Amino acid sequence: MNVHEYQAKELLKAHGIAVPEGHAALSVEEAVAAAKKLPGPLYVVKAQIHAGGRGKGKFKELPEDAKGGVRLAKSLEEVESHAREMLGNTLVTVQTGAEGKQVNRLYVTDGVDIAKEYYFSLLVDRASGRVAMVASTEGGMDIEAVAHDTPEKITTITIDPAQGFMPHHARALAFGLKLEGDLNKQAQRLAKQLYDAFMATDAAMLEINPLVETEDDKLTVLDAKMSFDSNALFRHKDIAEMRDETEEDPSEVEASEYDLAYIKLDGNIGCMVNGAGLAMATMDIIKLNGAFPANFLDVGGGATTEKVTAAFKIILKDPAVEGILVNIFGGIMKCDVIANGIVQAAKDVNLQVPLVVRLEGTNVEAGKEILDNSGLAIVSADDLGDAARKIVAEVKQAA
Ligand code: ADP
Ligand code: MG
């Protein structure tokens, strides 16, 4: 789960980390009121969307030369006019895709006199199975580009979970930022605080780009992007409440209400599968047959008719879907029960696209019979390869 910059900063602040003062705003009036609480005379009005690159972003509704989603303001009047221009408009950045994201919230924050920008991040690194911490002298830039062009400017360390964060980790990072004297000490202290905050919140990713050195020699967090392990949210009620569903794909939100694991992808073959491993294998074999999956969908072990129907509806809401492949292993559930669920769901949603079903497991013969006698144009398949070939052929034929 992702949160907004202002929410990430609230969490960091609660862990004792220095962030510039600021307040969230949902309207022009709130933005001005937020600015009035700040010392001034320099304010920054920042669009709150779940995507980076806001500063260099463009608003769809504004002229090409209009300012982006992070704007300096030298007076309350300027705060007001920036807020008016941004709220309700669509910001397109390198991370939003061409459709952009509507700006519904702003963050009005203290303007900082920046001497230098750095990069700092933490993430769960799958390769090492540890939390990795990344520091770079190249702040405010796209870190992938830095990693590609000048990898020597990036310092990466990983933390052994049994040992925890050690002083030598802090030194490696602070010296990686080429900091000296008191700034080096500040960086060491900050690295430890960030690691502690990351662990305490069950974060999956924390990116500070830029971390800045101010003109009066203080390190401060200027931008913060944070995401959390959804499976750990039950023990962080405060973070779970930060969820902003308007930032998420509506189909994914609906799927989570039915406890379905659904992720939208770019292809045209909708997949309904039980079990994450089987879902991955199904997606692979669709690709092997020259087509692309429209989604990942795991209906779970105990799929009911209700769940299957909800899953069908979610898949069909995607206008890109030209065919559906159902691949279910009847282990805990019996194939005849699943077949009844599929027939019911196909009737309920008045299915118009080709549907290939592959069932395996308990009562498979009875299940196939139900599908064959349903009067619906359901193509039944014998195994995974057969199923993938059939759905790809059906979709090609229909096109
Ligand atoms: P994004 O990464 O989405 O573009 P940032 O928060 O990193 O958004 O802001 C972009 C740039 O705007 C920063 O690199 C920094 O130069 C400037 N900036 C952001 N916040 C402030 C601030 N509080 N004071 C001064 N400059 C800022
Ligand atoms: Mg940034």
TrEMBL record:
<dbReference type="InterPro" id="IPR017866">
    <property type="entry name" value="Succ-CoA_synthase_bsu_CS"/>
</dbReference>
<keyword id="KW-0479">Metal-binding</keyword>
<feature type="binding site">
    <location>
        <position position="112"/>
    </location>
    <ligand>
        <name>ATP</name>
    </ligand>
</feature>
<feature type="binding site">
    <location>
        <begin position="53"/>
        <end position="55"/>
    </location>
    <ligand>
        <name>ATP</name>
    </ligand>
</feature>
<dbReference type="Pfam" id="PF08442">
    <property type="entry name" value="ATP-grasp_2"/>
</dbReference>
<dbReference type="GO" id="GO:0006099">
    <property type="term" value="P:tricarboxylic acid cycle"/>
</dbReference>
<feature type="binding site">
    <location>
        <begin position="331"/>
        <end position="333"/>
    </location>
    <ligand>
        <name>substrate</name>
    </ligand>
</feature>
<dbReference type="GO" id="GO:0004775">
    <property type="term" value="F:succinate-CoA ligase (ADP-forming) activity"/>
</dbReference>
<feature type="binding site">
    <location>
        <position position="223"/>
    </location>
    <ligand>
        <name>Mg(2+)</name>
    </ligand>
</feature>
<dbReference type="InterPro" id="IPR013815">
    <property type="entry name" value="ATP_grasp_subdomain_1"/>
</dbReference>
<dbReference type="GO" id="GO:0006104">
    <property type="term" value="P:succinyl-CoA metabolic process"/>
</dbReference>
<protein>
    <recommendedName>
        <fullName>Succinate--CoA ligase [ADP-forming] subunit beta</fullName>
        <ecNumber>6.2.1.5</ecNumber>
    </recommendedName>
</protein>
<comment type="pathway">
    <text>One-carbon metabolism; formaldehyde assimilation via serine pathway.</text>
</comment>
<dbReference type="GO" id="GO:0005524">
    <property type="term" value="F:ATP binding"/>
</dbReference>
<feature type="domain" description="ATP-grasp">
    <location>
        <begin position="9"/>
        <end position="241"/>
    </location>
</feature>
<keyword id="KW-0436">Ligase</keyword>
<keyword id="KW-0816">Tricarboxylic acid cycle</keyword>
<keyword id="KW-0547">Nucleotide-binding</keyword>
<feature type="binding site">
    <location>
        <position position="117"/>
    </location>
    <ligand>
        <name>ATP</name>
    </ligand>
</feature>
<feature type="binding site">
    <location>
        <position position="274"/>
    </location>
    <ligand>
        <name>substrate</name>
    </ligand>
</feature>
<comment type="function">
    <text>Succinyl-CoA synthetase functions in the citric acid cycle (TCA), coupling the hydrolysis of succinyl-CoA to the synthesis of either ATP or GTP and thus represents the only step of substrate-level phosphorylation in the TCA. The beta subunit provides nucleotide specificity of the enzyme and binds the substrate succinate, while the binding sites for coenzyme A and phosphate are found in the alpha subunit.</text>
</comment>
<keyword id="KW-0067">ATP-binding</keyword>
<dbReference type="GO" id="GO:0042709">
    <property type="term" value="C:succinate-CoA ligase complex"/>
</dbReference>
<comment type="pathway">
    <text>Carbohydrate metabolism; tricarboxylic acid cycle; succinate from succinyl-CoA (ligase route): step 1/1.</text>
</comment>
<dbReference type="GO" id="GO:0000287">
    <property type="term" value="F:magnesium ion binding"/>
</dbReference>
<dbReference type="InterPro" id="IPR005809">
    <property type="entry name" value="Succ_CoA_ligase-like_bsu"/>
</dbReference>
<dbReference type="GO" id="GO:0005829">
    <property type="term" value="C:cytosol"/>
</dbReference>
<comment type="subunit">
    <text>Heterotetramer of two alpha and two beta subunits.</text>
</comment>
<dbReference type="InterPro" id="IPR013650">
    <property type="entry name" value="ATP-grasp_succ-CoA_synth-type"/>
</dbReference>
<keyword id="KW-0460">Magnesium</keyword>
<dbReference type="GO" id="GO:0050074">
    <property type="term" value="F:malate-CoA ligase activity"/>
</dbReference>
<dbReference type="InterPro" id="IPR011761">
    <property type="entry name" value="ATP-grasp"/>
</dbReference>
<dbReference type="InterPro" id="IPR005811">
    <property type="entry name" value="SUCC_ACL_C"/>
</dbReference>
<dbReference type="GO" id="GO:0004776">
    <property type="term" value="F:succinate-CoA ligase (GDP-forming) activity"/>
</dbReference>
<feature type="binding site">
    <location>
        <position position="209"/>
    </location>
    <ligand>
        <name>Mg(2+)</name>
    </ligand>
</feature>
<dbReference type="Pfam" id="PF00549">
    <property type="entry name" value="Ligase_CoA"/>
</dbReference>
<feature type="binding site">
    <location>
        <position position="46"/>
    </location>
    <ligand>
        <name>ATP</name>
    </ligand>
</feature>
<dbReference type="InterPro" id="IPR016102">
    <property type="entry name" value="Succinyl-CoA_synth-like"/>
</dbReference>
<comment type="similarity">
    <text>Belongs to the succinate/malate CoA ligase beta subunit family.</text>
</comment>
